[in-house]
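Bench log. Compound arrived from synthesis this morning; before running ITC I wanted a structural hypothesis for how NPW sits in the protein. Inputs:
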Amino acid sequence: MRYAHEVGKVRAAEGALMARLPEGALMQRAAAGLAAVCARMLPRVYGADVVLLVGGGDNGGDALYAGARLARRGARVTAVPAGSRTHRGGLAALRAAGGRVLDRVDGEAVSPSAAAVIETADLIIDGLTGIGGTGGLREPHATLAVLASQATGVVVACDVPSGVDASSGRVDGVAVHADVTVTFGTYKPGLLIDPGAACCGVVELVDIGLGPDLPDPDVVAAWPVDVQPPEPRPESDKYRRGVVGILAGGEDFTGAAVLCTGGAVHGGAGMVRFASVEHPVELVRHRWPEAVTTVLPPGSGGVKALERIGRVQAWVVGPGLGTGAEAESLLEATLNTDLPVLVDADGLTVLARRRDLLRREAPTVLTPHAGELGRILGVERELVEARRLEHVRRAASELSATVLLKGSTTLVAEEDRPVRVNPTGTPRLATAGTGDVLSGLIGALLAGGMSGLDAAASGAYLHGLAARIASRGPVRAGTGHPSEAPISAYDVIGALPEAFRALS
Ligand SMILES: NC(=O)C1=CN([C@@H]2O[C@H](COP(=O)(O)OP(=O)(O)OC[C@H]3O[C@@H](n4cnc5c(N)ncnc54)[C@H](OP(=O)(O)O)[C@@H]3O)[C@@H](O)[C@H]2O)[C@@H](O)CC1
Ligand SMILES: [K+]
């Protein structure tokens, strides 16, 4: 796992470690790591034009010491100081190494000479704000951040791209858009969660020895080895591998039923039981003959319906189900069982008015997007998008459920556990029906015996990986990048076997 700690924990660990080290040692470790990454980014350090954007705190100090190291290797280093003060030791080190220091930038008026060096630099180190940054960037930092983001040189953010809130990934206003972020001691949640994550480029972690002093992480992101879907054993039969029951679709909404069932069929379930009214059942039978289907006559109550369907090990309720009395009765019946239940889409709309149904012991997994979560919590969608970590945690705690918040950087939260941030995925996943595939897939993993947190996080991982596999073609000659194509929800289902194989 990649571990991320919020600012308070980083500072506490730093304090404990600094007490055992000579003064300035930690900053030298950070600066050495930063300079080493910068040197790797340049074709030649000797003669390269390097600009340091230097804020008033230790983040600026790191940039100055790293700049001094590059200057000693022959780079032409220019510091652009911003803010009311500048790190003294760092400034002296840069000057001693032959670096140039421009006049301090005040207000919005960045001098033409400062703007010109930023524009033409081979590499820009962003040392405006790190973990000490609070709120939206003030001037002149905001203008400098925009100039850096627009420049043609490589932008390397020191610890955190300035303008990104290190603990949450919030960005109020502008932020530096880096090609590489060199972060010290531990990842910060804001480097893994959008909108902050989108500002980071590639994140490089520099070990400065904080490890032994760091407590449990606040946020974690899986490596492939951390994702371990249930493996069938030689003695497994279809019942022991887990039967997932899907209650989805209606006369008007049939696609969700077919896609959700497809996610479960390719998600490793031993058997998929699908139940709905006649039309979606016909379509599911046609597309997924593997599924065992049940037609629910209109008006059949929830408990009776579950009896007709037969035994399952986990339920998925909601995609395309509608939000009326029948949908509510089915949702209530499944939540009254002692089985794991995943609630998605229309099921979440019903839950928004029936939160009482969530008083249960068995695992409950909710898979909202920002709008659905906003409806359940009674806040605007935009606010959820802007503060994803805060809202997913709040939902998990208030609803006593595992909550998977879909979107760019999908998050999975459970009370008192580190939040899982999904590292896979592609913006091409933002297309109709992919959420239905995800809920079927997670349902299969739940039925296979995974906990709510593991099933949701592993499902998100596999789903995002399948989307990448589906959208990416061969590497384009001369670019080093794979070609890409738009994908459909069906393509994601089709790529699930390869995503599973990539983990084994
Ligand atoms: N912890 C560790 O383990 C280690 C930490 N290290 C390094 O120290 C960094 C933390 O340094 P830090 O505490 O001095 O804070 P920092 O990020 O420089 O920001 C403070 C400055 O920013 C300013 N400022 C704030 N908000 C602003 C805004 N919205 N808009 C504009 N300005 C704003 C604020 O201004 P003020 O509020 O004082 O006017 C002040 O001048 C950390 O990220 C890492 O790089 C490593 O060297 C060693 C290991
Ligand atoms: K920075």
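What the model suggests: Residues 452-471 form the longest helix (20 residues). The longest strand covers residues 49-54.
ITC booked for Thursday regardless.
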